[in-house]
């Protein structure tokens, strides 16, 4: 077993760190990365904190609606200085309608990224989930924008800390045009993001681990390590196609996806 698969934190530490992350998420304040206090924290420890965070939110009435793959493109890994993708959970409280005004008052330093979202029609369970398994289990795909919000000061973090912070998940907006996977070449979809009418970044869906369905398969296989499956009906974001773009009150964002239409929102 590699070191990163080992749990080193005690149950008390996992609960204490989940409380710390929840406080920062709810209060929209920055904290220092968790590895400052626990330098030998592993990826397994990060997922233990994330699972406790999920348990706490669900106990408070939040509903799990799906999952996200994060850090799946070379651009994102380089931007953040990490080399392995991650996953995080999505709840009903994070969803925002298309074309809505999204408050930044309850966020620390939000950034937006364009993603292909999958809606599942069959349960999936790893290990050994493949791209084809994902495509067979997909009801339809749609374009989405993820609003990430790392709770760590100055974006100074490492993979274990980011996973504990639920992969920086904060808000998400699905929209555009839903399509069946067999009607698309999911590898070559072009995406352009505009901020205040100017193009700020662009890319192609192959940036996400070569194919967005591969990122979903990776997510299902990480879920299996956590002894979880991906149920039918889940909404899954497959990872940012380009680097993430910072937003502030007054900014408006339009993400234009080839074949899938566009997703818009403004920040207040
Ligand atoms: O969605 C993601 O790619 C996760 C990003 C985690 C790091 C960040 O805050 O940018
Ligand atoms: Mg993302």
Task: Annotate the secondary structure layout.
Layout: H1 11-27, H2 43-59, E1 64-70, H3 74-80, E2 86-91, E3 101-102, E4 111-120, H4 131-137, E5 138-148, H5 159-164, E6 169-174, E7 190-195, E8 198-204, H6 212-225, E9 235-237, E10 245-246, E11 252-257, E12 261-267
Parallel strand pairs: 1-9, 3-12
Antiparallel strand pairs: 1-2, 4-5, 4-9, 4-10, 5-6, 7-8, 7-11, 11-12
The structure holds hexanedioic acid and magnesium ion (MG).
Nutshell version of this structure?
The protein has 268 residues and is an alpha+beta fold.
Considering the chains and any ligands shown, give keywords for the structure.
5-stranded mixed beta sheet; 6 helices; 7-stranded mixed beta sheet; 12 strands; Fumarylacetoacetate hydrolase, domain 2; binds hexanedioic acid; alpha+beta; 268 residues; binds magnesium ion
Order of helices and strands: HHEHEEEHEHEEEHEEEE
**Using only CA atoms, what is the Rg?**
17 Å
Given the structure, what is the number of helices?
6
Q: Structural class of the helix and strand makeup? A: alpha+beta
Write the CATH fold name: Fumarylacetoacetate hydrolase, domain 2
State mean pLDDT (0 to 100 scale).
95
Distance between the termini: 47 Å
User: What's the number of structural domains?
Assistant: 1
Low-confidence stretches: none
CATH class: Alpha Beta
The appropriate CATH architecture is Alpha-Beta Complex
Q: Shape from CA axes?
A: globular
Q: How many strands, which pairing sense, and closed or not: the largest β-sheet?
A: 7 strands, mixed
Distinct small molecules bound, one entry per kind = hexanedioic acid, magnesium ion
Query: What's the total count of β strands?
Result: 12
CATH homologous superfamily identity = Fumarylacetoacetase-like, C-terminal domain
| Relative strand content | 25-35%
Helix content: 25-40%
């Amino acid at each position: 077993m590699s070191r990163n698969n080992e749990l080193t934190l005690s149950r008390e530490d996992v609960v204490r760190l989940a409380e710390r992350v929840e406080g920062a998420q709810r209060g929209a304040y920055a904290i220092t990365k968790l590895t400052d206090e626990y330098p030998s924290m592993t990826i397994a420890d990060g997922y233990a904190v994330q699972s406790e965070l999920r348990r706490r939110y669900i106990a408070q009435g939040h509903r799990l609606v799906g999952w996200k793959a994060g850090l799946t493109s070379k651009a994102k890994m380089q931007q953040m200085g990490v080399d392995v993708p991650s996953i995080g959970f999505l709840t009903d409280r994070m969803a925002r309608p298309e074309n809505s005004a999204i408050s930044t008052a309850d966020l620390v330093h939000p950034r937006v990224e364009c993603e292909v979202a999958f809606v599942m029609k069959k349960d999936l369970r790893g290990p050994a989930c493949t791209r084809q398994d994902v495509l067979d289990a997909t009801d339809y795909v749609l374009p989405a924008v993820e609003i990430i919000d790392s709770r760590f000061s100055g974006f100074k973090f490492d993979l274990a800390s980011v996973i504990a912070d639920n992969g920086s998940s904060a808000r998400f907006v699905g929209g555009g045009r839903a399509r069946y996977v067999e009607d698309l070449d999911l590898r070559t979809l072009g995406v352009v993001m505009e901020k205040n009418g100017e193009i700020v970044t662009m890319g192609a869906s192959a940036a996400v681990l070569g194919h967005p369905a591969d990122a979903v398969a990776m997510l299902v296989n990480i879920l299996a390590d956590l002894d979880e499956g991906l149920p039918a009906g889940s909404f899954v974001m497959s990872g940012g196609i380009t680097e993430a773009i910072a937003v502030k009150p007054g900014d408006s964002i339009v993400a234009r996806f080839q074949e899938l239409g566009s997703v818009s929102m403004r920040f207040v």
